[in-house]
Amino acid sequence: MTRALGLFLLISCCEAAVKVPAIIGDHMLLQRDAPVRIFGTAAPGEPVSVAYRGQTARAVASSWGRWEAWLEPMGLGAAGEMTIRASNTILIADVLVGDVWVGSGQSNMQFAVRQTNNAEAEMAGATFPEIRLFAVPRKGSAVPVEDVAGRWVVCSPETVKDFSAVLYYFGRQLHQGLKAPMGLVHTSWGGTPIAAWLSGPALTGNAALLPLSRSWQEQIQMYPLNMTRYEQGLAKGEKPAVPMGPGHPHEPTTLYNGMIAPIAKYTIKGALWYQGESEAGRGLGHVYGEALETLVGDWRRAFGQGNFPFFYVQLANFGNAAKNGHWMRVQEGQVKAAGLKKTGVVIINDIGEATDIHPRNKQEVSRRLALLARHVAYGETGFVYSSPLYRQVTVEEGGMRVWFDHAGTGLKTRDGGAVKGFMIAGRDGKFWPAVGRIEGDAVVVSHPEVKEPRAVRYAWDYNPEANLVNSAGLPASLFRSDERDEVVFK
Question: How confident is the model over 29-48, as pLDDT tens digits?
Fold first, then answer.
């Protein structure tokens, strides 16, 4: 009896010890110029102190055994040790202060440095002691979780090779340009739909997202049959894909619960998002813009830091002539979502690969993301930071004038030739390849068969032949002045 009681007390004591999640650990990077939350668990009512750089923040564990302590805003400086004390003491070594960026999405965000152009040279040159990397393990959950099994590592040729290329190249651009340490938190999973990255309340609270839920319900209805076929395939020695069903990473909310919720208390500078191929392939492009706007609001509420900067990568050019418009509608939705405060979209319809959904030139993707960040997140001015985006269209005699924002000192073509990629339609809705004439920040388009123009489109195709750029060489986004549901045209 005495031995059992002693064992119980020992276990209780160990469980009561102050603990922190994996994202608070050796080599971590804290966000500069903002209140920084340090958090963890301890015995209910237990006092906890956090000491770093001459500050001591204090907290008391709640009745649920959770605590949060806030460090006052800090500037850049040398790495130091953090001490967390309660009934026990935790020492966290090599803690830096700089900017923390989260990168998420599907396979193009997951795409590793070792897979990109010039991979060997990029990895060999990746010794950056002031860039810190944290990879969230790919694991879903039916309910929000509080911790993951990751750890912070110092950027090196070895640690960077399997890390997100887009996030790393972006962080490297900012690190070298701003002369500030960077903390990069990678949390993505290839092939996953946007619904998996939304919280339950966000998904169910927006009726416009019902098609996403219905799409999953259709998968659930097919699950028993698909599982039978899967098991039959295994019995024959085949290697079929595991069918989608309960617990699958494509299940709505499961990746938010398992890969966003556990890092949402960590103080960050901003986020990057590269995803949308799944919705294009499933015929859900028409709802993507609404879903992306919902995701931004959802994550901003979860992190509790107001409207932190949030940048997206538009889908690249890919494939053959359009059979339906969902690839383009995802792209269109990504531009529309960039109307939210402190957001932006990177256009890459000039650096995709027609036969590969994973463009290897992630360096240029990240350079364009860094341009957005320098302006929106860091307030730099005096340079062109965005691709040309459609503003409005006005009808002129025999044609239409298309106005763009972010033209810089004037629009031009990438190859110096005639403008390509515009199509114009009249009353009958039939689109014709348009002749274009650049005039400053506008393009006048026309076609001899279109006497009374009603609509114009640009780059509205999977793999468009389009060449309009601004003075900085950044490509114009696709757009359509008409919003009709039918998007098949010749």
Answer: 999 999 999 999 999 999 99
In order of start, what are the domains of the chain with their CATH numbers? 100-386 (3.40.50.1110), 389-480 (no CATH)
**What angle, rounded to 10 degrees, do the helices at 285-303 and 210-235 form?**
100
d(CA 158, CA 146): 28
CB-based contacts of 89: which residues, under 8 Å, 6+ apart? 83
483 pLDDT band, cuts 50/70/90, is confident
DSSP secondary structure code for residue 259 in this structure: I
DSSP assignments along 199-257, one per residue: -HHHHHT-GGGHHHHHHHHHHHHHHHHHHHHHHHHHHTT--PPPPP-TT-TTSTTHHII
Look-up of token digits 């098609």? 211
CB atoms within 10 A of CB 471: 15
How far is the C-alpha of 100 from the C-alpha of 184, rounded, in Å?
6
93 Cβ partners below 8 Å, 6+ apart? 26, 27, 81
Span 209-258, pLDDT tens digits: 999 999 999 999 999 999 999 999 999 989 998 999 999 999 999 999 99
Alpha carbon of residue 266 to chain centroid: 17
